[in-house]
Amino acid sequence: MSLRDLEPKQPVKYFLELSAIPRGSGNEKAASDYVAAFGRSKGLEVFQDAERNVVIKKPGTAGYENAPRVIIQGHLDMVCEKNKGVEHDFEKDGIKVVLDGEFLRAEGTTLGADNGAAVAMGMALLEAEDIPHPPLTVIMTTNEEVGLLGAAALPAEHLEGKYLINLDSGGEGVFTAGCAGGLRTVLTVNGTREMIPAGFTAVKLNVSGLLGGHSGANIKDERANANKLLGRILSFLSKDFDIRINSVSGGEKENSIPREAEVIGCIKSTDFGLAQNALNGLIQNIKDEYASSDPGVNIIYGETVVGSCFNAATSKKIISALNVLPNGVQHMEQNLRCFVETSVSLGVVKTEGDDVQLFSAVRSSVASRKYEVLGRIREAASAVGAAMASGSDYPQWTYKKESQLCDICAETYKELNGKEAQFITIHGGLECGLFLEKAPGLDIVAMGPVIHDAHSPDERLDAASFERCWELLKAILAKLL
């Protein structure tokens, strides 16, 4: 079957067209222009701001002209990750979408169904002439994956309406009615370089084979973090051996659990074999620890070639920073204790000149806990002599028990499927909290098709679920008189 023969035809068509346009966070101009041009070609009211957010308004269909306005919302950008060895330039190349059984996936990269599926459904609604609906405002934001920056900049005037349906969460029969807030931090270790000391051998240590995934949705799964494994290994070795760092790198995106990390440095030539023997035992312990949650852990240690390294003092700071930064689940929800309340993920580590930078993403559904973790990161920075900065702070979306929109969604889902819908709060970040700050009266729910392993090259969109989500969205709109 051809991809373009899949149902729902119009959303799939627009998803494939969007996938051909590079649209990583910060590189959304072409995708933004594509959606804005589409709206203008349909004779609709289009707003496009300096952040490349796109807002398109469409009147209600016959009989719905005076119904309360409904906002349909998603984001244009995607997380750009690829498997090692895959040649793909996310700045220039579109995503190669393939049909793999019942799933849409990409060839060796993230698919971008998060959140291209929302953009595609929004465009299909704007184009359709046979779908009953109230007056619509379709909002597609930018830079969602790097701190909800587009949503933060969106003028409140575009949020006029009674209902907002976010299409960036959910799954079969699952609606989201609350989410965590978050913020980002970066630690910078600045140091001094020197030539490799006499009698030292250049070495490289690589961590790979991890599952990775979304640092909000998958943090509960206890998957290994490549950056933290690297810090643990270096800390272990540095107790007995003189380790000097040339560079350290790991992870590609702050909101993804890093799958690979690498350190290049040097060690006394006489210690090379001893370190290898010591490392073998630790590697086996790590593999045993992650045998169920991350069974593909692979750690390789060997010689390489390099000309310089940080001095001993700087190397110690780098190793300490990697090892002491908090990571993983910090608190569980107080009542049911089956939901993650607060977490932090050391998503990216990189070396630029004389600086090593460590980027973390903090998430919490309790604001005070979010700032408590921020305080611990600040203390860790101080302890190792690093500079720290924070930003991209956004609020949580608090669950509201009384919601007419949630009631309509539950009723509609049961009519279509004969089953009760679930309403949950999630640990991932959505733009809904920011929108409620700008327009407190909005009644909001989030939904979407089933997407597996978002933020990783294993990302897959369930094609049948995409069709069912589309039919559900249309049925909900028809009830919003």
How much of the sequence is in beta strands? 25-35%
Q: What distance lies between the first and last C-alpha atoms, to the nearest angstrom? A: 38 Å
Number of strands: 24
> Over all CA atoms, what is the radius of gyration?
24 Å
Strand order of the largest sheet: 1-2-6-3-7-22
In round numbers, the mean pLDDT is: 95
Poorly predicted segments: none
Largest sheet composition: 6 strands, mixed
The outline comes out as elongated
Helix count equals 11
SSE-based structural type: alpha+beta
Fraction of residues in helix: 25-40%
Draw up the topology in text.
Layout: H1 9-19, H2 29-41, E1 45-48, E2 54-58, E3 70-75, E4 97-100, E5 103-106, H3 113-127, E6 136-141, H4 149-153, E7 163-166, E8 174-190, E9 193-195, E10 200-208, E11 213-214, H5 226-238, E12 243-250, E13 256-257, E14 261-268, H6 272-289, E15 298-303, E16 308-310, H7 312-324, E17 328-332, E18 340-352, E19 355-364, H8 367-384, E20 387-394, H9 404-417, E21 422-429, H10 432-438, E22 443-446, E23 451-452, E24 460-462, H11 463-479
Parallel strand pairs: 3-6, 3-7, 7-22, 8-21
Antiparallel strand pairs: 1-2, 2-6, 4-5, 5-24, 8-19, 8-20, 9-16, 10-14, 10-15, 11-13, 12-14, 17-18, 18-19, 23-24
